[in-house]
Automatic annotation (TrEMBL):
Organism name: Panicum hallii var. hallii
Cellular component, GO annotation: apoplast; plasmodesma
Subcellular location: Secreted, Extracellular space, Apoplast
Protein name: Germin-like protein
GO terms (BP aspect): plasmodesmata-mediated intercellular transport; regulation of root development
Lineage: Eukaryota, Viridiplantae, Streptophyta, Embryophyta, Tracheophyta
Superkingdom: Eukaryota
Length: 222
C-alpha cells in the first residue's frame, strides 16, 4: 500500500514531463485506417523528401500567388491555397500559403481550417473579417491595407469586401495541409437560395459595423 502513492506520482510526472517526441505528430490527412496485416508498408504522414544532392534553390520559389483568381462566380471571390502538394519547398516546414481576391460586395463564406491557424495580411482594399469562438462570441474587425488579422485554428471565419474596389489578402497557415471545411457547402448546394440569402445577410452584417465580440444579428441565423 505504501508503494501506491509514490508509484502513482511517478506515472503522473512521467506523463507531464515526457519528451514531445513520445507524443503523436499532428495528422496531415483527414483519416488513416490501419491496413490489414498483409498490406502494411512504410508510410509517411506527408511526402518523401528529395535526395540532398538533387535539391535546388528553385524548389523554394513559387509564382502560384502572383496573379488574381477568377471572380466571375456567385461569391465574387477567389481563394488560391498553395500547400506542399503544389510547392515542394513547403514539405516538412509546417506551412501553407493562400491568396484571396474579392470584388466589391463579394464574400468568402464561413469556413474553418481544422489543422491550422491563419495569419492574414491585407495587401489592398478594405475587408471586414470575423471569427466565432467555441462559446459563440463574434470577433469582428474592419481592416485596411497593411493590416493583419489572425483566425485561430479550427474556428469558423469569414471575409467580406466592404470597399468600393477589389481587395486582395495573403495568408500564411501553420500546416502544410490545413484542410478547409466549408460550412455552407457541406449543408447546401452551391446554387441554393439559402446561400444567396446568406450572402445578402453577410453584406448587411458588414455594413452594420458591429463592435468587437458582438453576437447580435448573426447573418446566418435562419
Amino acid at each position: 500500500m505504501k508503494l501506491v502513492v509514490p508509484l502513482c506520482s511517478y506515472i503522473l510526472l512521467s506523463g507531464i514531463y515526457a519528451p514531445k517526441a513520445l507524443s503523436d505528430s499532428p495528422p496531415l490527412q483527414d483519416v488513416c485506417p490501419m491496413a490489414p496485416q498483409g498490406e502494411r508498408k512504410v508510410f509517411m504522414n506527408g511526402f518523401l523528401c528529395k535526395h540532398p544532392s538533387t535539391i535546388l534553390a528553385s524548389d523554394f520559389k513559387t509564382l502560384l500567388l502572383n496573379h488574381a483568381g477568377d471572380l466571375n462566380n456567385m461569391f465574387q471571390s477567389s481563394v488560391n491555397m498553395v500547400t506542399a502538394t503544389e510547392f515542394p519547398g513547403l514539405n516538412t516546414q509546417g506551412l501553407a500559403m493562400a491568396r484571396t481576391d474579392i470584388a466589391p460586395s463579394g464574400v468568402v463564406l464561413p469556413h474553418s481550417h481544422p489543422r491550422a491557424s491563419e495569419m492574414m495580411f491585407v495587401h489592398g482594399g478594405s475587408v471586414a473579417v470575423g471569427f466565432f469562438d467555441t462559446k459563440g462570441r463574434l470577433f469582428q474587425k474592419t481592416l485596411g491595407e497593411g493590416e493583419v488579422f489572425i483566425f485561430p485554428r479550427g474556428l469558423v471565419h469569414y471575409i467580406i469586401n466592404y470597399g468600393f474596389g477589389p481587395s486582395t489578402t495573403f495568408s500564411v497557415l501553420n500546416s502544410q495541409n490545413p484542410g478547409v471545411v466549408g460550412i455552407t457547402h457541406a449543408m447546401f448546394a452551391t446554387d441554393s437560395d439559402v446561400i444567396e440569402g446568406l450572402m445578402a445577410r453577410m453584406l448587411k452584417f458588414g455594413e452594420m459595423g458591429l463592435s468587437d465580440n458582438s453576437t447580435a444579428g448573426l447573418p446566418w441565423t435562419f
